[in-house]
Each structure stands twice: as C-alpha cells, then as structure tokens.
Design a protein that fits this description.
Helix content of chain A: 25-40%
Strand content of chain A: 15-25%
Number of strands of chain C: 8
Shape of chain C: globular
Order of helices and strands of chain C: EHHEEEEEEHEH
Strand order of the largest sheet of chain C: 1-7-6-5-4-3-2-8
Oligomer: heterotrimer
CATH architecture of the largest domain in chain A: 2-Layer Sandwich
Number of helices of chain A: 23
Number of strands of chain A: 29
Distance between the termini of chain A: 68 Å
Chains: A alpha+beta, B alpha+beta, C alpha+beta
CATH topology of the largest domain in chain A: Aldehyde Oxidoreductase, domain 4
CATH superfamily of chain C: START domain
Radius of gyration of chain C: 17 Å
Strand content of chain C: 35-45%
Radius of gyration of chain A: 28 Å
Largest sheet of chain A: 8 strands, mixed
Structural class of chain C: alpha+beta
CATH topology of chain C: Alpha-D-Glucose-1,6-Bisphosphate, Chain A, domain 4
CATH class of chain C: Alpha Beta
Number of domains of chain A: 3
Number of domains of chain C: 1
Shape of chain A: globular
Structural class of chain A: alpha+beta
Largest interface: A-B, 64 and 57 residues
Chain lengths: 822, 179, 213
C-alpha cells in the first residue's frame, strides 16, 4: 500500500475522488496495445464470413446462384437471404403501421433496398477463401427506380417495401400553446422555405465485428460483438432466432468507439449465428471493412425542414414556430422511429417560445439504414432552431448574441417545464454565452472583423447553443406507438467483496472509451472511503455477469446518471451490509463504525474500542467461515442494484410529459474566414463551453467535449454521406469521406460551468453526445460571413464548392466587390 | 488461419525477437503481425491507407502496415506498440499520453504512439505544426486531437530527458533500443 | 451515375454488310478491346467476357447483351448489363445506319447507368472513361469491318450456326488452338493488338477453346 493510500483512512467525507481528474484505469492495457477488441479474440475453429452485397440501391432479385461459391475451395456454407428468411422471424418493428408492417430480415430476400444490402453470406476457412468464393456468386437484379430524397419518397412513386405499401414510416402533429393566436398577434412573421440537415456518420475507427457461436446441442448462442446497446440487440435477436433471451450470451471487452453507430448491427449478428449453427457450432467471425461500414452499417438522420413560419414580438422574442419536418431514415427504420419523438426532448431548444406546431414525418429511402448517431435526432432540431434564430435576428436587425439573450430561458426559471412537458433541470445559457464571448475575445473580434470586411474579406463570427438531453424516458416510444412495451430508463450494477475481500464492480454499461471503469471506481472509492486503485472494475459487458437490465447499453448521454447511480446504489447496499457484519464481528454499534483504509487494507473500524476488521476478514466470515453468523444477519456482500429513473409514461394523446431527466448544454463560438480565392472556410478561432452539472472526472468530460467538437466540425465542413440520383454512395471510403484529422482540427479553447442537476443523486448530467454544437456554430459563423453577399446558409454541410456555387448563383464570384455591403 | 500455399520464407525481428516464417507473398504486414504473431495491438481501421491505426516502425521508420507486404520486412526490424514498454515500465511517450488523457477508446492509440516515435527520433523538439503534420495520417474519432497535441509535445521533453539520463525511452525509436 | 457516349463514322461498306457485322457477336465480339470470351444463348442473347479497368487495375466483367431492336439494315439496338466485382453497369447502345455516296454512315449512341462502389472511387473519371472506351470499341469494330473480317460467312467462326437454343462458345486464344493453315490472312491488318484474337479465335472453332480468365 502506498503512503497516499494509507492517508485516505484519515480523511473523512465521501467526496475525495468524485470531481477529481483521476488517471484512467483503461490506459494500463490500451496504451500497451493489450486492449481486447473483438477482432483480437482467437477462437479455435473460427470460420470467416464475406457478404455478397448489392451494387444497386433498389432492385428485384431475379435470381441468385451460389452453387459455384458453395463448391469453391475452403467454403463451409453459403446462405442466401431467402434461405435465412426461412430460418428466422422478421425483426420486431418498434413503430406502428405503416412502418410497423415493414419486413426486416437479416439479409435481402427478394428485393434489395439500399446499396450494400447483403444478399448472401459466404462462410469459409479463411477470409481469403470467403472473398474468392463470394466473387463467384451470380446475382441477377432487375433495377428499380431509386428514391434518394425523403420528400420524393413520400409521394410513393417507387415504394420500397411492398409489405407496408408506402414509404411513410410515421407521421404526427405536435402542437402546443396557441399557435394561430400567436401568429395573429405577431409584430413580425418571418418565413423560411427550406432548411436541410445532412447525412453523416461518426464512423468509429473500429468497424463492426461479430463472432457468433451457436451450440445446437444445448441451444446456447454466444456472441462476442461490439454492439453498444446489447440489451436492445438481444431483445431483437431472441424472437428472430427463436431462442429465449437467457440462451443468448453476449460479451464485449474493449470497443473502438461506437457513437451510436454500432447499435443496429444485430442483423449481422443473426447471420453469423445461423452460419455457426449450420457449421456444427463452429465460431463464425465477421470483420466489417471500412467500405462496408460506410455503405451498410448505419448513418445519422437526414432531415428537411419546410414551410417554417416564425412569429416574433416587437423585441424579437419568438412567440411561435410552425414547421414541417421530414426525416429520412434510410431503407429500414430499425431503431427509428424513435427519432420521430426524441427530438421533442428539446422542442423549444434553449428558448422560451411557448407556441409550436411541428408536423413530423419519417420516410424510408434507398439509402443506408439510419442509426442513433451521436446527437441523435436532437441535433437536427437544435440546428434548425439556431438557423431560425440567426435568420430572424438578421431580418430584424438584432445581433446574433443579443437575439439569443432575448430568447433564452433564464436560469432563474429552472427547473423549466417546456411546452410539451419536458423539464429542463438546470442551466444558465446567458452565463455560458458570457464565458464563451470572454474566451474568444468577442469585442476584439467585432472590430477585427469590421476592419477585415472593409478590406473585402469574407469573415464571420457565430454562436451555436445546444442542449444534450440525457437519460431518456423510453415511455416516449408510446407516443409513436401506443402499443410499445417500453418506458422509463434503468441501469444495473453489482459491487461485491470477492472471497478474499477484493472490491469488484460490474456494470451493465458498454463503454467505448468513456472511462466507465475509472469513474465507477471513483464513486465506489468515495462510498467506502478507499482509494480507487483498490476498486477493480470489470471491463466491458457480459450478460453472464447478470447485472444488466433491458435498457443496458451506452447511449443517450446518460452514464454519469444511470450507470453511476447504479454503481452508487450497489456500493451503498454493500456498505450497509458491511456495516451490519462489522458491527457483529466487532461487537460494536453501527454508529461508531468508520470506513477507511488501515495497515491491512480497506477496513471497518470501531472508533470506540479502536478494533478493526479488514475486508479480507469480513469476506471470510460470509464466504468460507460462516459458522456462528446469526441467522438474521442476512448478508452476502454481493450486491446488485438497479437504478430506475423517476419517470412516468407520458400523456400519449397530448404528446406531453418529461422525456429526459437531465439537460447538459454547450455553447460554442467560432470565427471563420472564407478564402476569397479558394472559397475554403478556415476556422480562425474556436471556443467550446460546456455545462454538464456536477463533474465526476473533469479530464474525461473535457475529452468528451473535444471529441464531440471534432465530430461536429468534421460534419459541418468535411463529412457527408452523399448519394447520387441512382443511390450510389459517393463517399464510401475514408479517402472520399475525409474524417477530420490533425491537419484540419483547430485548437479549441475550453470553458466550463457547473449547474448541478436536482434530479440525479450526484448532481451530474449525462454529456457524451454533445448536441452537435459545432454544426450549429460553424453554420452560424459562415452565415455571418455571407450575410452581405445575400447567401443564406440553408444546409448543415458547407464546403468551398457549395459556397462558391452559392456565390456564383448570385453573380458574386471572385473579384467582384463584395466589400462593405452590410 | 489463411491457407498456406508454397510460400516465401522470411526472417524478421519484431520487438527484438527474431521470427522465422513461411508466408504467402501477398500477406500484408499488418496481417502477419496480427495473425501470425498474434500481436493484436496494431489495428485495422480502414481499407484505403487513410487512418493510420496500423502504423508500426519498419527499420526505424513509420509505415502503414496495411500497405506493406510482409515480405518487404524480410531481414528487417519491426517495432509495434507491444515493443515500447520495457519490463512493464511504460515508455515516456506512453506515459505522456496517459498523463494528458490523450486516448479514449484506445483504437487509434498504438498507431499514434508509433508515429510519435518516428517524429521524435527525427525531430526532438517539434513545434505544434510539426506535430500535426507528423500525425496527419493518424485518424482519431474520440479525442478531438487536443490532448494528443499536448501529449506529444510533452513526450518530446520526456524523451529528451530520458536521453540525457540514459533511462528507458531515451531513443524514441524503440527498435534501436532493443538491440 | 448516368453516363453518355456517342459519335458517328463513315465506312466503305454497304448497309447490309455493316448491319450483319454489328448484329453477329461471333464477328464483333472478338474485336472488342480486352475480349476474353463469348457465350451465345440464342440469336438475340449473348454474354461477353471482357477485362475492364483503368490501366493496370483490371478485373473481369461479364457483359450480358440482348439485341433489343433488329431492324435490318437500318437500325440495331442492344441492351446490356455488365457485372464485375464492386459494381454493375446497365447500358444501351444504338446504331443507326444510313447509306451515303461512299457506303454507309453509322451513328452510334449509348447511355449507361453505373452502380456500385466504383462510383465512389472513380466517380469523376467515369464519364470521360466511358466515352474513351466506347470510342475505342467502335474504332476496333470499324477497323475490323474495313479490313474485311466482316466478309466472313457467318458460321465459319462458330462451331455451329448461331441458332436459337444452341450454345456456342468462343474463347480468347490459346496458343495450342492456333491452326495457321486455317487462319485468314487478315489478322495482320488488325490495328489493335487485341484484335489479333479475332484470327486465332476464328480458327479455334475446330476445338472448343477454354477462355482464359
């Protein structure tokens, strides 16, 4: 034991570790290249899968001939989509009809619906043999017209799924307050025809990987897979494969990022499992290539905002917003149509508008199915609101910062109930703006920009305000589908003393770099008053640890609340058992007991007598030396706890209720210059301010903010999953998609505020997704640079090319005096 | 296991240990490292040589091992992330990454560490611009690079100090140290 | 991704000769650049194997052709689909023939729709490549026509007359199959080195030749 560890015993209180930037436990293995990612597993007898995939976005499968592939050297089995369909039930659909009628099988059966959809799986002794054999598969397609635009899809000119008969997945109207009244009284009404949020993906560096082993003798299926929401996956796989959930074992250790993209890989899990069963239970491994990932894993939602009308009073305060939102969910809804409601968690954004009417519809298109990409469904809506604020502010001659201040919800109003019944727990957006302005040097930039504009430079400064709603209430699914059997939120954890007194923690979460082992250890260390190094946290996720709930996974910005509350609950339970046991062992009153660390490690001490018993001794009494324990001393020192978020099922009729527990916020400011020669946007300055309530580990929080900022800047300026009119994905490699690198990621100045949440035990708020503030901010800065040119930024993705085209259309290409036209 | 056909015989030193193997001429170095030698710290993240997760040192220079044939390493020295720590003690570059929280999921980290070795062996006092250029071929999706810039700048100082003190990691290209 | 190509040429041959050449895959097939083999299912449906790609990066493509319009001697139109690893090309190609003072004028025109990862990697290159490759194919056909390969009677090149339901197979040359005494003396005049295949494959008719992949 180190000196530091010994001194812990002397310091009272339970807040020594939470709030500190404790060094991460994960580094010990990750820095040495000893992480266990799924492709690192070596199982005896593994077979390898190569998928035959459609080059067409939309086509009938006229015929499929895999005989040559079956007979190729090294091939164990070939499964076609039609063969698989006979072996499974189609996957559950979350939504009601019409989307609920869609038939979703693990591979394409008689039609393909997006480029890259798998039509057959070739399983062989080596990946090379599988690839060679896959090329021998002959598939005859009858090409069908592809729809790549959601609005066009809704005309049902070319229907993707005959089973539902329409491309509409879901639609609904969300109306609150007195919208018409507000418009009739408005001092100003501003109309915005069309805004568009583009399709992109967080593209984790590690692709999807599945190893499946289906032992038919005892009908147990084993998965090693980097799916980041395994509770959801097994609920889909169990009925599809016809086995009980308890027969499905799921394990993961280290995951190379997910950002929500790895939630919907369960169709591939199903194919691998079936292949394994067909091969006598040999493990079957699928390692996704980057091109497959870009084409056929999951993308983020694309959304179009039409016919927006905004009512404002004389001071520029928005009194009503009316708009039609059309969401594009790709070829299969899968985790959608939750996206149809999740945006409503931030219905008014950071703003006080009371009257809103949003018509929301979701359509399938011949593109990669969508998944809950980082910022899921909220970021699209928050971007929309930021554009509305900027466009309206400009129209009324109110500066962007002032426009926001006039419209922000005030911190004094927190907790604040939004028009649709969501409760913002805490936050001070005005203060965040002050901090951000201070950090970027707002006033200085105003004069620098004015001077630069006099020289004819295109330069702007913009603000993006965003909310990262965390810990969601699955009851919102019932607003979409009243029959959905989902509500609330939960997470499970187990804290125990092992036989020799080791403190061991297991959690139902699925970390992909968020440092759960570290923060969990901090929490337990505070409860038991020990050093975090004395707390072992089992890495990764394993259903056999029996600690998970039906909500277990890592998504929706919630671990600090759900995971840590579960850990805290389990640790508190353990502490209570230890207290009773120690009281018996030491013959002491529980009130006289003190938890800490002694000369023999973690211990419990009776302050009255000075006697103590260490964890080894306590564990010994319960595990191997229990004769003499009083019968009513019912302790096991193995404590499982499930945290349940305090939710109710929302009012489905009114679409009203609290949909998320915590509301972290971020506010960013960017200064961007558009080069007059090349039109390349360049970031000259960037500030990110975050508020995620009480911070458990500041270094981890900062890292998440930086990571989310990189994703957002990348999406705003470089990353675009664009399709041509035939449904070809034009950015199917990293070299075309261009994830952001050190060459174009600027230095960020970081600021911070802590508005504790009254709704979590520790005052923390979940914060990992980040709310895509940079997308809002970069667009705001570009817009500020382009006001004088008459260009309105209407798309979330802007490049040198699009800026050039926009300026050219207005006859304002290079060389012509743009200058002082404010 | 890949089917072995009549192959090429190679001898290559990896992290100080010599390996003899009969491999197919088309085998990529990254697959040789991961599958034949079971050193899974080197990762694969893309299929167009973009991401750098596969970066290792070959004869002291960083290479993207997904774009090098294993036969090209014949007779040479390869250093992977597993070769950085010595007797359990982290290399100063690894220590700098740890202290600056320069990793989250850890998937890009081995490649970044090796690119840093390459940089510091040639430029013991890099500017931030030098650092960005050196890691331009290493894509990270988690950290936003901020802490990585700091970690590498700090690593430079630590490597120089280790060099002066003659302790582990003084020569950033660890392959040189292994001799 | 939609591509267009087209052009026209004049040739000192009668309309019927041009038409017969362009409608007989046994004659025009071997003349195609990078031709590797031909399978005829019936008089309107064939499959041609060609090597496609950019410079050294090539792969084998199976191209199914259907003679959709056969209006002798004025017009023919093919519909086709080429499949190769990573993609698929659906195309149509039309030939409109008109007599002129010297012989015939041939206007050719086509459209292609490309599907697959090809469009992502080579997207920007595909349009110019399409025109270039189409032009090259046309030049080869025209040269073969001019040099008289089109004079051959149908059936000399095939084992059996092209008839409905009969399968005939033409492969690319195998050295063993070359039988010089049967080779027409025309091969030397073929401008394209690939066109030399036409001579040996014609003579290879005696024994079935395995097309090389």
């Amino acid at each position: 034991m180190t000196e530091e560890q010994k001194t812990v015993a002397k310091s009272p209180g339970s807040n020594r570790w939470v709030g500190q930037s404790v060094a991460r436990k994960e580094e010990a293995r990750l820095l040495r290249g000893q992480g266990k990612f799924v492709d690192d597993y070596r199982l005896q007898g593994t077979l390898h899968v190569k998928f035959v995939r459609s080059a067409y976005a939309h086509a009938r499968i006229a015929s499929i001939d895999v005989e040559q592939a079956r007979n190729a050297p090294g091939v164990a089995v070939v499964l076609t989509g039609a063969e698989v369909a006979k072996l499974v039930q189609p996957f559950i659909e979350i939504g009601p009809d019409p989307g609920g009628k869609i038939l979703d099988y693990p591979m394409a059966v008689d039609k393909v619906h997006f480029q890259g959809e798998p039509v057959a799986a070739v399983v062989a002794e080596s990946i090379e043999a599988a690839e060679d054999a896959a090329e021998l598969a002959r598939v005859d397609y009858e090409s069908l017209p592809a729809v790549v635009d959601a609005e066009e899809a809704l005309t049902d000119g070319s229907v993707l799924h005959p089973s539902s008969g329409t491309n509409l997945v879901w639609q609904g109207e969300f109306e609150y307050g007195d919208v018409d009244g507000a418009f009739s009284k408005a001092a100003h009404v501003i109309e915005i025809d069309r805004l568009h949020f583009h399709r992109f993906s967080s593209t984790p560096l590690e692709n999807n990987v599945v190893i499946a082993q289906w032992d038919a003798s005892d009908n147990q299926i084993y998965f090693w897979c980097n799916n980041s929401f395994p509770a959801f996956a097994i609920q889909f796989l169990s009925p599809a494969l016809g086995v009980g959930i308890d027969q499905i074992h799921f394990q993961s250790h280290d995951i190379g990022g997910s950002f929500g993209i790895k939630i919907t890989n369960y169709p591939y899990m199903a194919v691998c499992a079936l292949a394994s069963r067909a091969c006598g239970g040999r493990p079957v491994k699928w390692v996704e290539t980057r091109t497959e990932h870009m084409t056929a894993s999951a993308h983020g939602n694309e959304r179009t905002f039409r016919d927006t009308r905004v009512a404002l009073d004389g001071d520029g305060v928005i009194t009503a917003i009316e708009s039609r939102h059309i969401d594009d969910c790709g070829a299969y809804p899968r985790y959608e149509p939750l996206g149809c409601i999740i945006w409503a968690q931030v219905l008014p954004g950071a703003y006080r508008v009371q009257n809103m009417r949003i018509h929301f519809s979701q359509a399938v298109t011949n593109k990669c199915p969508v998944g809950p990409n980082r910022g899921y469904s909220r970021m699209q809506h928050l971007w929309f609101l930021e554009r509305v604020i900027d466009i309206c502010g400009h129209r009324l001659g109110i500066p962007a910062d002032e426009m926001r201040l006039r419209n922000y919800i005030k911190s004094s109003e927190m907790p604040y109930t939004t028009p649709n019944g969501c409760v913002y727990d805490s936050g001070d957006y005005a203060a965040m703006q002050r901090i951000a302005k201070d950090l970027i040097g707002w006033d200085e930039w105003q004069s620098k920009i004015a001077e630069a504009r006099r020289q004819g430079r295109l330069i702007g400064i913009g603000i993006g305000t965003t909310l990262d709603s965390g810990t969601n209430n699955f009851g919102q699914s019932q607003i979409i589908n009243p029959r959905a059997p989902y509500s609330g939120q939960s997470e499970g954890a187990n804290v125990k003393l092992d036989i020799y007194g080791e403190i061991v923690v297991s959690i139902g979460s699925v970390p992909q770099g968020q440092g759960h082992e570290t923060t969990a250890a901090q929490v337990v260390a505070d409860v038991l008053n020990v050093h975090p190094d004395m707390v072992k946290v089992r890495p990764g996720f394993d259903t056999d640890r029996n600690v998970h709930t039906g909500h277990s996974g890592t998504y929706a910005s919630q671990f600090a609340v759900t995971g840590l509350s579960a850990v805290h609950g389990a640790a508190a339970k353990l502490k209570s058992e230890l207290s009773r046991l120690a009281s018996f062992a030491l013959g002491a009153n529980e009130d006289d007991l003190e938890f800490g660390v002694g000369t023999q490690g973690p211990e419990v001490k009776d302050n009255k007598s000075g006697k103590s018993i260490n964890y080894w001794g306590l564990a010994n009494l319960v595990n191997v030396n229990n004769a003499g324990l009083p019968p009513d001393l019912d302790v096991t020192l193995n404590c499982r706890y499930v945290y349940r978020a305090p939710f109710k099922v929302p009012d489905i009729q009114r679409k009203y209720g609290n949909l998320t527990l915590t509301y972290a916020a971020q506010l960013h400011i960017a200064v961007i210059e558009i080069d007059r020669e090349t039109y390349i946007p360049k970031i000259l300055g960037y500030v990110a301010v975050d508020d995620c309530g009480r911070v458990v580990n500041p270094a981890i929080v900062r890292g998440q903010v930086f990571g989310a900022t990189a994703h957002g800047i990348g999406a705003a300026l470089y990353e675009d999953c664009r399709y041509d009119e035939a449904g070809n994905l034009l950015a199917s490699t990293f070299s075309d998609y261009i994830p952001i690198t050190a060459l174009n990621m600027p230095r960020i100045r970081y600021g911070h505020l802590e508005s504790p949440s009254p709704f979590s035990y520790n005052g923390a708020k979940g914060m990992g997704e980040g709310g895509a503030a940079p997308v809002h901010t970069v667009c705001a800065a570009l817009q500020d640079a382009l006001w004088s040119s008459g260009v309105i930024v209407k798309d979330s993705h802007n490049t040198a090319d699009s800026v050039f085209r926009a300026l050219s259309t207005l006859g304002l290409d290079r060389g012509q005096g743009l200058g002082a036209r404010d | 296991m890949p089917e072995r056909s009549d192959g090429v015989s190679i001898s290559v030193t990896v992290n100080g240990r010599r390996h003899q193997a009969e491999i197919e001429a088309r085998l990529l170095l990254v697959d040789f490292i991961r599958e034949n030698l079971n050193l899974t710290g080197t990762h694969i993240g893309c299929d167009t040589s973009f991401c750098g997760a596969c970066t290792v040192l070959l004869n002291g220079s960083s290479v993207k091992s997904c774009t090098v044939l294993a036969v090209h390493a014949a007779g040479g020295e390869v250093t992977t992330v597993e070769g950085l720590a010595k007797d359990g003690e982290l290399h100063p570059i690894q220590q700098a990454f740890k202290d600056h929280y320069a990793l989250q999921c850890g998937y890009c980290t081995p490649g970044l560490l090796m690119s840093t070795c390459h940089l510091l062996a040639r430029n013991p006092n890099p500017t931030e611009k030098d650092i960005r250029k050196a890691i331009a071929g290493n894509c990270c999706r988690c950290t936003g690079y901020q802490n990585i810039y700091d970690a590498i700048a700090d690593a430079a100082a630590r490597v120089s100090a280790a060099r002066a003190a003659g302790t582990h990691g003084g020569r950033a290209a660890a392959s040189a140290e292994a001799r | 991704m939609a591509l267009q190509f087209g052009g026209e040429f004049e040739i000192q041959r009668a309309l019927e000769e041009v038409y017969d050449f362009l409608s007989d895959p046994h004659r025009f097939g071997p003349v195609l650049p990078y031709f590797r083999g031909l399978t005829v299912a019936d008089e309107r449906n064939f499959e041609v194997k060609v090597s496609v790609g950019i410079s050294h990066i090539r792969g084998m493509a199976d191209v199914k052709l259907n003679l959709a319009e056969a209006d002798r001697p004025r017009r023919l139109a093919y519909r086709g689909r080429g499949s190769l690893a990573g993609g698929s090309v659906d195309f149509n190609a039309r030939f409109d023939l008109e007599p002129n003072s010297k012989g015939s004028k041939v206007a050719w025109k086509g459209e292609a729709q490309v599907f697959g990862v090809l469009t992502s990697i080579a997207g920007g290159l595909l349009q110019p490549l399409a025109q270039k490759n189409a032009q090259k194919a046309i030049d080869g056909l025209r040269a073969a026509l001019e040099s008289g390969v089109g004079d051959q009677e149908p059936g000399v090149s095939g084992q059996s007359p092209v008839g409905s339901g009969q399968l005939s197979v033409l492969g690319s040359p195998s050295p063993l199959a070359t039988q010089p005494e049967l080779a027409p003396p025309l091969a030397a005049s073929s401008p394209d080195s690939e066109g030399a295949n036409s001579q040996t494959s014609a003579s290879a008719a005696e024994t079935p030749v395995q097309g090389s992949e």
